[in-house]
Amino acid sequence: MLELSGVSTRYGAITMLRSVSLEVEAGRVACLLGPNGAGKTTLIRTILGIVRPVAGSIRFEGRPIHQLRTHQIVELGIGVVPEGRRVFPKMTVEENLRMGAFVEWAPADLERRREHVFELFPRLAERRRQRAATMSGGEQAMLAVGRALMSRPKLLLLDEPSLGLAPLLVEQLFTMVQTINRSGTTVFLVEQNARKTLEIADHGFLLQKGEVVGRGTAAELAASDLVRHAYLRT
Ligand SMILES: Nc1ncnc2c1ncn2[C@@H]1O[C@H](COP(=O)(O)OP(=O)(O)OP(=O)(O)O)[C@@H](O)[C@H]1O
Ligand SMILES: [Mg+2]
Question: In CATH, what number is assigned to the domain containing residue 37?
Fold first, then answer.
């Protein structure tokens, strides 16, 4: 569904991603593991056309997207839960969800999609008029996922959604990601929580210093020395 081939990016003189090739298969949960500063967020931003690759190609459903603008890429069916969630603090839950909508939707359509998100997250429904800033970290995470789902993406990118959440909420979030995947959405999950991630992922990649240094099925990654030493020491 998504295919990166030889993608390199640069911030000024510094090469950040070095010939990254990876693919996300339709219907699956793929993951990207890697330490702080490895380039994970840069990779997400590159897929979304926020950062432009200096080399390589990115294809979504066979179509090159690396020349497209971000809104065009999103309209093709890619949704994102950005790093840090980025909910709009002064807006209510309903207003935040509206920000996940496209301009051309009719109000009835918007309403239908919002109700669908509320079915998935009853907790958000109870709080629909509450400002995002006053919500708990876990609720804000749900809101960020809900906002990304408003456009019913075929592919959902999540950039460290579990960061800063208490263990129980992390558990719930991962279960939610699984539910979303089972309902037909392909998932590309960026995480540092390797243990949990490899429990729900089908396959994945390990990024270090801007390079893919490992890849395989979740079982292969969990068994690899590289992943075990770097992430699964406990
Ligand atoms: N706009 C920018 N200009 C210059 N350097 C940048 C910019 N954005 C990121 N970087 C640098 O690129 C490197 C990779 O950053 P990135 O945010 O992609 O890492 P990451 O893997 O997402 O890390 P984390 O796990 O901490 O979120 C870092 O060294 C960072 O300082
Ligand atoms: Mg990051």
Answer: 3.40.50.300
Mutate to test the pocket of ligand 1, among 20, 40, 231 (most ligand atoms within 8 A of CB): 40
Task: Tell me if the pTM is above 0.85.
Answer: yes
Domain that holds residue 212: 2-83+154-231
Distances from the Cα of 75 to the Cα of 9, 78, 142, 190, 201, angstroms: 23, 7, 22, 21, 25
Is 77 within 8 Å of 153 (Cβ atoms)? Answer: yes
Count the domains in the chain: 1
Residue 117 lies in a domain: no
Q: Give the CA-trace dihedral at 179, 182, 188, 194, to 10 degrees.
A: 60
Residue 8 lies in a domain: yes
Residue 39 placed within a domain: yes
**Does any domain span residue 198?**
yes
Q: Can you read off the two tokens belonging to residue 83?
A: 């790093």
The closest residue, in CA terms, to atom 24 on ligand 1 is 36
Across the chain, the runs of DSSP E, i.e. the strands, are 2-11, 14-24, 29-33, 55-60, 63-64, 78-81, 155-159, 186-191, 203-208, 211-217
Interval between CA 38 and ligand 1 midpoint (Å): 7
* 63-89 residue pLDDT tens: 999 999 999 999 999 999 999 889 999
Strand-strand pairing, 203-208 and 211-217: antiparallel
pLDDT in tens, 41-67: 999 999 999 999 999 999 999 999 999
Looking at residues 191-207, what average pLDDT do you find? Answer: 93
Q: How far is CA 19 from the centre of its chain?
A: 21
CB 151 within 8 A of CB 102: yes
